[in-house]
Amino acid sequence: MAAPTESTSETPTNKKQKKSKNTVDETELLVVPEGWKEPKFTREDNPKGLLEESSFATLFPKYREAYLKECWPLVQKALGDVFINATLDLIEGSMTVHTTKKTFDPYAILRARDLIKLLARSVPFEQAVRILEDDMACDIIKIGTLVRNRERFVKRRQRLIGPKGSTLKALELLTNCYVMVQGNTVSALGPFNGLKEVRKVVLETMKNIHPIYNIKTLMIKRELASDPELRTQNWERFLPNFRHKSLSKRKQPKKKTVKKKEYTPFPPPQPESKIDKQLATGEFFLLESEKRRKKMTEIKVKQAEALSKRQEQRQKDFIPPKEKPGVKKTKPATTENKIDIQAIKEKVKKAKSKKLGAPPVNPETPSAKDGKRKKLKS
To answer: Going residue by residue through the chain (378 aa), what tens digit of pLDDT does each one get?
Structure first.
């Protein structure tokens, strides 16, 4: 009976060991080793090829016709390596790609579709060919409908490009992506992580958030990712928090005195019609001739009032302005300015009593004076 007891005691320990091994394996699988790359898809992975033919077509604008005509042989050569045919229709203005019997990679047709999309959106061939690589992806962001006002849209799009394309160049260096702003779309080409950041920056720029804020955060993230100690830590304490400035609204009074009308269940009274007014005044019952006569008298009264007003306005030009009085107002005499007449009389009497100055040159005799007076009297 001892043998089965030993076997039962060994089983739980073996289970624990197996569980610990499984947990270690799962954690190892989650971490991607540095420098690891997914192996290329070869013909050995799909020796029988594709069952059916699939194709994609895109239209291109008229201004791209000359460039596509020049670089089309290079496009055909690049797609020929993946066994995909490409046709350019200049009459319809379209590009078409389709698989062949030799095509073995099922994802190659999707890459070819992205290639012709990028070429249609003014991306040069040298950059667009990179989409055929395994680590590359593309994203075409539509920005035309994000802003209603056209002038505002153009300003924000220019803000994304920056002075002499400096903002766009900084974004390309930080995300390892090629970015092309053309018309109502932004075409981006690069790794998946970079495309995610580019889309975020573009959409926030169109929502009136300056791209410099996102560029600053990307620079900090890049430095933190290069540090092996900080790579596994939380980065929130290092990243800046840019607060939105709340613009001050129009000042409103603190106490608003709005008188609310008293609630009444009854509807407002109906306004009086023209006939109701005539009935109230008694005009409705008058004859037509009397009505006309009354109207004519009212018109004449109005005309007379208008004529009198007009004449008054005309006469205003002929009315002389009020003249100011010529005589100046005399100031009231003060006690200091008053003349003492009595004192002046006394001074004159004193002057007469005193003989001032020299005697006259030919003094007349008193007899001569009396003779003259007699003559004057007679």
So the answer is: 444 444 444 444 554 454 454 555 566 666 777 777 888 888 888 888 888 999 999 999 999 999 999 999 999 999 999 999 999 999 999 999 999 999 999 999 999 999 999 999 999 999 999 999 988 999 999 999 999 999 999 999 999 999 999 999 999 999 999 999 999 999 999 999 999 999 999 999 999 999 999 999 999 999 988 888 888 888 888 888 877 666 666 777 777 777 788 888 888 888 999 889 888 888 888 878 888 888 899 999 999 999 999 999 988 888 888 887 766 555 555 555 567 788 888 888 888 776 555 555 554 544 545 555 555 554
Q: What is the pTM of this model?
A: 0.57
b/e sequence 330-359, b meaning 16+ C-beta within 10 Å: eeeeeeeeeeeeeeeeeeeeeeeeeeeeee
Residues 6+ apart with CB under 8 A from 151: none
Q: What is the 3-state secondary structure (H, E, C) of the chain?
A: CHHHHHHHHHHHHHHHHHHHHHHHHHHHHHCCCCCCCCCCCCHHHCCCCCCCCCEEEEECCHHHHHHHHHHHHHHHHHHHCCCEEEEEECCCCEEEEEECCCCCCCCHHHHHHHHHHHHHCCCCHHHHHHHHCCCCEEEEEECCCCCCCHHHHHHHHHHHHCHHHHHHHHHHHHHCCEEEEECCEEEEEECHHHHHHHHHHHHHHHCCCCHHHHHHHHHHHHHHHHCCCCCCCCCCCCCCCCCCCCCCCCCCCCCCCCCCCCCCCCCCCCCCCHHHHHHHHCHHHCCHHHHHHHHHHHHHHHHHHHHHHHHHHHHCCCCCCCCCCCCCCCCCCCCCCCCCHHHHHHHHHHHHHCCCCCCCCCCCCHHHHHHHHHHHHC
